[in-house]
Amino acid sequence: MYGLRNTEDLSxxxxxxxxxxxxxxxxxxxxxxxxxxxxIFSAFAVSIAxxxxxxxxxxxxxxxxxxxxxxxxxxxxxxxxxxxxxVNFKSGAVLEVFDxxxxxxxxxxxxxxxxxxx
Length: 118
Fold this sequence. Notes:
- This protein is an all-beta fold.
- 0% of the residues lie in helices and 40% in strands.
- The relative contact order is 0.27.
């Protein structure tokens, strides 16, 4: 639980379009149309349209909650006060990824050769 620094430059996520959701037993991955990838190993919350944020534990079954994000475009991305990640989308959807593991990675963000590990 080291957290995403609130000074981290996440501007590379702006205007990135979700192209696919990849599901495995240990991770959920969101691939964008740019060389950007978000891999989730932890709990997350998602709000589609005007619905309230709903928390999920990050299991393969929970990946279904992310599918409405396919083809949506990022409008903002920032660190949360607890060291997680919040991503806002053009449709009004919001994704929050939590840094909830003391022993393991909670999520990674890759941008080409740059890798941010939380």
